[in-house]
Design a protein that fits this description.
Layout lengths: L4 E4 L8 H10 L4 E5 L11 H9 L4 E5 L12 H21 L3 E4 L12 H19 L5 E5 L12 H8 L7 E6 H6 L4 H7 L4 E6 L19 H10 L5 E4 L4 H13 L5
Helix pairs in contact: 3-4, 7-8
Length: 265
């Protein structure tokens, strides 16, 4: 069992979390990323049950903070306040279940305020400062994820991501690299990996054809995985890799792809 390679509960989005754990155990996985939404939401009323459930399985855990309707870069103060609260609670929850890493999204520009992009950036920095300061009491590894190419998304290329991660006021924020998101931005993923080498601790793997964030099984799109894994080897990457597909058969197909290509090191 490779404890560095796991899968996302996204494939069980409409099912109870226990189904993901049971399936993962049956298929010899030891790492699960819990997408804390829908049936897997980790909230005050569900946390005790989730703690009991996760402790009954021999898994390592990461958590993906809620992202639907969440925007820590929102110009709307009430929306932003609630979004930050949910990320903070996710930090608390990761610590409670004995997880190691929390992935969260940077938020997005408002579609109606394209002229306020610099203001949105300032709001994002302020939100990240509040989140990173809160995490000082918990010591969870919090990892900001890069976003796919849309006209309202932020943190799409290495320059944008590094502007955040290299800020001395935002201590302890690391990086979750989503390779499918990168492909939609038409970047050189090898260069991106080198640029982010000091912050990269978590990876979402899936495939697409560069136009849409399809979450296809590995090998079914046109992402250059040989280039990715050469670059990861060059930087001696030892972090976690999550297969982020929406179907269990795609997860298994992707693991077989990695094994056949001998990409797991």
């Amino acid at each position: 069992m490779n404890k560095r390679l796991g899968f996302s509960s996204l494939a069980f989005y409409e099912e109870p979390l226990e189904n993901a754990l049971s399936w993962g155990e049956s298929n010899n996985f030891g790492l699960l990323e819990i997408v804390a939404e829908n049936n897997h939401a980790i909230e005050e009323e569900t946390l005790p049950e989730i703690k009991n459930l996760t402790s009954s399985y021999n898994f390592d855990y990461t958590v993906h903070s809620p992202f639907s309707d969440i925007n820590i870069s929102s110009l709307n103060k009430s929306v932003r306040k609630e979004s930050i609260r949910q990320v903070k609670y996710s930090i608390f929850a990761v610590n409670e279940i004995g997880g190691k890493i929390l992935t969260f999204h940077p938020g997005r520009h408002s579609a109606a305020t394209s002229k306020s992009r610099e203001n949105t950036k300032k709001i994002l920095f302020d939100s990240l400062k509040e989140i990173s300061d809160y995490n000082k009491d918990y010591g969870v590894t919090i990892a900001l994820e890069n976003m796919p190419d849309t006209f309202i998304t932020t943190m799409k290329v290495s320059k944008e991501v590094l502007e955040v991660l290299e800020n001395k006021q935002l201590l302890g924020i690391k990086h979750t690299m989503d390779v499918g998101h990168l492909e939609t931005n038409n970047v050189d993923i090898g260069e991106y990996i080198y640029d982010l080498r000091n912050y990269l601790i978590h990876i979402h793997l899936h495939d697409n054809f560069g136009e849409f964030d399809n979450h296809l099984p590995l090998g079914d799109g046109n992402i250059n995985f040989p280039r990715i894994f050469r670059a990861l080897k060059e930087i001696n990457y030892t972090g976690r890799i999550i297969l982020e597909m929406t179907k269990t058969e795609d997860i298994l197909k992707s693991r077989e792809f990695l094994e056949e290509k001998k990409y797991l090191f």
